[in-house]
UniProtKB/TrEMBL annotation:
UniProt keyword annotation of Transmembrane helix present: no
Keywords: Periplasm, Signal, Transport
Signal peptide feature range: 1-21
GO CC terms, sorted: ATP-binding cassette (ABC) transporter complex, substrate-binding subunit-containing
GO molecular function: maltose binding
Biological process annotations from GO: maltodextrin transmembrane transport; maltose transport
Domain of life: Bacteria
SUPFAM superfamilies for this protein: Periplasmic binding protein-like II (SSF53850)
Pfam families attached to this UniProt entry: SBP_bac_1
Transmembrane segments: none
CDD domains (UniProt xref): PBP2_TMBP
Protein name: ABC transporter substrate-binding protein
Amino acid sequence: MLKAFAAALVAATFLTGAARAEEITIAVGSIGRDVDEMRGQLDAFQKATGHTVRIVTMPASSTDQFGQYRLWLSAGNKDVDVYRTDVIWAPQLAANLVDLTEPMKDVVDQHLPAVIQSQTVDGKLVAMPLFADAPALYYRKDLLEKHGREVPKTWAELAETAKVVQDAERADGNAQMNGFVFQGAAYEGLTCDALEWVASNGGGQIVSPEGEITINNPEAAAALNRARSWVGTIAPQGVLGYMEEESRGVWQTGNAVFMRNWPYAYPLSASDDSPVKGKFDAVPLPAGESGVSAACLGGWNLAVSEFSEHKDVAIELVKFLTSADSQKARALGTARLPTIPALYEDPEIAERQPLVAKWKSVFENATPRPSAPTKAKYNEVSQQFWTAVNKTMAGQGDGATNLQDLERQLRRLKRNAW
Ligand code: GLC
């Protein structure tokens, strides 16, 4: 009798001591197969821990996601526990995110230090890296061969080749063919594309790492005027409204010679149902007048909301999804670039996702957007920049005039300090 009582007591203690299954929510943006891929990993987490995770699907545009997150966080929203965050947001959202320094202290060292540093604000680790991003120039091997052209190494060569191949294909009855597609819509993606045109032309990074406004210079103006000359000649007029998935749509149906896009587009373009399967490859972006190529540094991270009522499980999930196993599965499934350098030596990744293996140095040498020096004002800085670029490409003012105005606006935004 006493024995049975003791056993029951032990069982009861054990049960209350064991973690109860909880339900948490993660917010994830929908580009390519990211949401599907996330669902697969969340199912594995559920199986391993018993906790269930719901996905809130966010819009594709990084800018729209940022606006929504900012609203939710300023309203103290308890419904989202984990946010998938863009690499540029750390300084702007830091105040409402949990410090992950202590919970991640055994795993941070696996990641590239620069990435961890980009997510550290005043000593607080506000997010853990899920994957990095650095763009590629996708090109149609078959069309360049057919028309006897080389892969372009400079923007000038790209424009010339795009025009020749596009016009020849159109003359051959391929009326829908375009020379070049990229991200020209007025949103964060255009800041990335235009930073690449400007930086590769020797025009700097909009705002220097020391916080100085440098964008109003002749090299930057020339880069914008060059992009303006593409619209309606090698790029469709509609490119002024394209984000990543719109460019991929044109490219993947076979209607573009070149595309600027992130690595996620590679396995999608190579899939069995893709009309461009086996007909393309990808190389680093062309160089500008400076003679070097510039790739914008992108990437996504996971952060825990300070308003979460399930912080322990949320942290466990972040650890799981940013682990080497999880990053490897993500690289294999969607070509998302690992932030754990050791994975670039992984033979399975090298075999199944050759772009990932080749992209380590492109990612390590990528150009950051000025989110660190402009701190909480980065979003406004970027918005002013992409507006000036989009206007120039639409023919409203030239590069020099629009960059002069931009400098004035940025000075007003900065006042004495960022
Ligand atoms: C990619 C990048 C991200 C960037 C976005 C712009 O998702 O990873 O950093 O802000 O593109 O569209």
